[in-house]
Amino acid sequence: MPRVLTEGALRPEAPRGLEGVPVARTAVSDVHGLEGFYHYRGVDPTTFARSGTFEDAWYLLHKGELPGEADRVAFADRIRRAMHMPPVLRDALPALASLGPPGSMDVLRTAVSAAGVALGCRPWTEQDRAMTEEQMLNVAALTAVLAAALYRLARGEQRVEPSPDLGVAANYLLMINGHAPDPMRAAALDTYLVLAADHGFCNSTFAERVIVSSGADVGAALSGAVGSLSGPLHGGAIDRVPTMLEAIGDVSRVEQWLRDRLDRGERLMGFGHAVYQAPDPRTTVLRALAKEVDSERAALAEVVEKTGVRLLNERKADKHREANIELYAGMVVEYAGVPEELFGCTFAVARMAGWTANLLEQIDDNRIFRPAARYVGREPA
Ligand code: ACO
Known about the structure:
Elements: E1 29-32, E2 37-40, H1 54-63, H2 69-82, H3 87-97, H4 105-118, H5 129-154, H6 168-177, H7 183-195, H8 203-212, H9 218-229, H10 240-248, H11 254-263, H12 281-293, H13 295-315, H14 326-336, H15 343-364
Antiparallel strand pairs: 1-2
The structure holds acetyl coenzyme *A.
């Protein structure tokens, strides 16, 4: 029987990884790679990262402006209420925690999916937009609770309830460590959470928008986003940087250690970015903060940064490469009181703010993502 040739219907092939190809329109956030600048709805997050809270960034990403005092209080209350765990999810936590090691992003991904089911998330095409928005906010707010509870349970400790008097950052630290943090440490975590709350059309944002574009529920999309973020080339780099700094150990070993790694064809964690070719503005803020709170390791990291940037650019001159957010993030987050095993999950806690804003945008102007692939396999006989 004659076969219909579909080849002619294909558009020109996109570059690998879709680099530089706009596949959606967004008003949530944008990254200017050549200028080393990014913004949330027109506001530069580095301008309020040291003074504001994570809830400010979250509100901005959703509402389009920073909150005034009354809105700040109301939104923080809303998030705190959403941290209440459905009993069925609470009962499932010990079993979920036993699936992997403390701080596992894979376990968190599974728990976010379970949270979606427990909260009754359904295909957004079959329910009110307000209901979908409510559900995604609940899943997002629960992520900090889940990450902390799963960490403690996996270590044989009791989980700790969030406090009605604290914001997300301080509550997260309370739920991890069992005591409220001092305000300086909570503020350091807020700085990180603000800076990491969104970042253009990154891999995880694209992934969740693909998932929700089929009409799938927001629990499915957000657990998919955590899965994407867990990859070592994306958010999974954050906990590999401290290991790298520890292995290097001393400034005298930096150059040789980095050279050896590159000679083996391995990647330098905390370097390079799909979009930035100028210094990553998040790195600038976190470097300064790391120097204040962990001066010894920050000094080593600065030598690693200078040397790594030089070596990477000597070896590959096609585009300029700099350090990324991950190089100093671990130092700041650890100072705040987050154990190294939880770094990746903490990134997911932050990114929930941007992911949920992106899901709403996708839902409000949806077209199912269904690209094509050029078939290069064996043709049927
Ligand atoms: N170490 C060594 N070589 C690198 C690095 C690096 N960190 N970054 C780029 N390169 C080189 C490689 O030779 C690579 O070529 P290959 O794919 O043939 O091996 C080439 O540059 C790719 O160049 P780019 O176009 O600059 O980067 P790409 O968009 O492919 O990847 C990425 C970006 C994944 C972030 C990469 O730089 C990397 O793997 N970095 C290390 C992991 C890391 O720090 N991830 C966190 C990123 S920030 C974030 O997601 C939150």
